[in-house]
Amino acid sequence: MATITVAYLPYNTDVGFLRIKQQYITINEWRVAFFIHVYASMWVLLAGFTQFSRSLQQRYPRLHRGMGYVYVADVLFITGPAGLLMGFYANGGLSSRIAFVLLAVLWIYFTAMALVKARQRDFTAHRNYMIRSYALTLSAITLRAWKYAITNTVELPPMDVYRVVAWVGWGLNLLVAEWMIRRRSGFFR
User: Measuring CA to CA, which residue among 89, 94, 123, 128 is closest to residue 111?
Assistant: First the structure.
């Protein structure tokens, strides 16, 4: 992800993903949302990565809480809203737009609920919402992995691949998150 992000530095508009988004690059709101989303998402990935270590939570609760606030603030006020705006301009037609708008709405909702549950000291619900939220955060990676896997195994037109990964890139992550939550709660015993 860092390699992908560096390609856009400092403000390169003719690389990677932006090559297929040239029709939107002149729309100020979209362009600002894109660069905010790309640059600030790295912090979400890193901060979220620290949140699931039990030893970090127990040994350094202030660090856990601080990184949690970085994660929550970034998703709720920066990357989530930017991703939502970008979702309305997704390639692949209505199906892709619905997928990316829904991804952003769920990401913001799960993150907000994780904060609410932490403040209510309902740490089981807090953890479950964070698992869901981080599963959606990881869609930045899994979307690209699915795109690579599909394009290297099946011959589909590029926009069809995009439509598929728009849903699979986060949908399967959320299913795995729900499975983890249910398994942990004893649902499968």
Answer: 128
